[in-house]
Specification:
Elements lengths: L2 H13 L15 E2 L7 H5 L5 H10 L8 H13 L1 E4 L7 H12 L4 H7 L10 E5 L3 H7 L7 E4 L10 H13 L4 E5 L2 H5 L3 H15 L3 E5 L8 H13 L4 E3 L11 H18 L1 E2 L1 E5 L5 H14 L10 E5 L1 H15 L12
Parallel strand pairs: 1-8, 2-3, 2-10, 3-4, 4-5, 5-6, 6-7, 7-9, 9-10
Helix pairs in contact: 1-4, 3-12, 4-13, 4-14, 8-10, 10-11, 11-12, 12-13
């Protein structure tokens, strides 16, 4: 199976003829997000019919099926969109270096050879670590184009004083992080304090400088889908480059109904401003099947540009093991045990 067969014929067929267009009617590429003034009318207009949203999300897992080389193509795209992550309390420099080695070569050489995709130079989208390990990760990824994403601003609670959270961003950027994952103060959303949320995110954006900012909404803490939509809109107006579902530490993390609300907020924002905001699903995404579901959601709701690492990411580590198992099954017809895959 040649690289062209997997990457072009398989992937493009399932994207369809509209794959080269995005959600803008004129088909042009939206600009990066520069933010807008806070427009409360946009926030107030957001509604969320929970039962309808849940029914729509359910169709993603029932009406689609992708097999053989087409499935392999989608799974390779999932690898390219993965932020390979370690955010554990017992993280060490050695664990981060191992993660970076996996990021450089996410699939076993034998599997790459069987798939005949050597020319793709496949890597993950980024490596995501605590800001304390940003410098370690930057050194381990030297010579590659893989960015380091550092979680900052008092992750995961985000309740430390604002000055400390901003200083943490500065330290991560100085350490070489090219992406910063920030967490919002959930109380601003729960209390409807949209100006306070806007000012907080705008302050973080200013501290990030040229680094891309992913705003973690911690959707499992926001109580309602309407709050998720409103928080998404305010974060985008404040200059978010990405909006992200979860820290991975909440009781409920990334779910398809939440993803549907957030992607439709992105669609609305892009239609009104002409500017694109990325989306990151993080927390609880562990299997190849889930990866496919999220990719289908992005394609259906936002279009082809949101199937690129520049506008879509997974926050995961264990998911990559299951993707390798599925690709190995495609090549050999047999499933291997998890422990036979190189550990992330």
């Amino acid at each position: 199976m040649t690289p062209e067969t997997i990457q072009e014929r398989g992937f493009k067929r399932h994207l369809g003829q509209q794959a080269e267009q995005n959600i803008r009617q004129d088909g042009t590429q939206p600009a990066p997000n520069r933010g807008t003034p806070l427009t409360l009318d946009w926030v107030d207009d957001i509604r969320a019919n929970t039962s309808a949203i849940e029914r729509r999300a359910q169709t993603l897992v029932t009406r689609r099926t992708v097999k053989k080389e087409w499935q392999a193509a989608w799974l390779l795209r999932a690898v390219a969109c993965t932020d390979l992550t370690t955010l554990a309390g017992d993280d060490t420099a050695e664990r981060v270096r191992r993660l970076c080695a996996k990021a450089r070569q996410p699939l076993k050489p034998s599997l790459v050879e069987h798939l005949k995709i050597q020319e793709l130079g496949l890597t993950v989208g980024a490596v995501c670590v605590y800001h304390a390990f940003a410098e370690t990760a930057v050194r381990a990824l030297e010579g590659t184009k893989i960015p380091v994403a550092a979680v900052s601003t008092g992750f995961p609670a985000g309740l430390s004083p604002l000055a400390e959270r901003v200083a943490e961003i500065h330290r991560s950027v100085e350490a070489g992080a090219r992406e910063i994952d920030v967490v919002i103060t959930r109380a601003h959303v729960l209390g409807g304090e949209w100006q306070a949320l806007y000012d907080e995110v705008a302050t973080f954006k200013d501290a990030c400088g040229s680094a891309h900012m992913k705003v973690i909404l911690a959707t499992g803490d926001l109580m309602t889908l309407r709050n998720v939509g409103r928080a998404s809109m305010v974060a985008m107006m404040a200059g978010a480059d990405f909006i992200k579902t979860s820290t991975g530490k909440e009781t409920v993390n990334a779910t398809l109904p939440v993803g549907l609300v957030m992607t439709r907020a992105i669609r609305s924002y892009t239609q009104q401003t002409g500017m694109a905001v990325g989306f990151k699903a993080a927390g609880g995404v562990r299997t190849a099947k889930q990866a496919m579901e999220w990719l289908f959601l992005m394609k259906d709701e936002l279009g082809r540009p949101w199937l690129e690492p520049s506008l879509f990411r997974f926050g995961a580590s264990g998911m990559l093991t299951d993707i390798e198992r599925q690709l190995e099954h495609y090549v050999t017809g047999r499933y291997s045990a998890n422990y036979r895959q190189p550990l992330a």
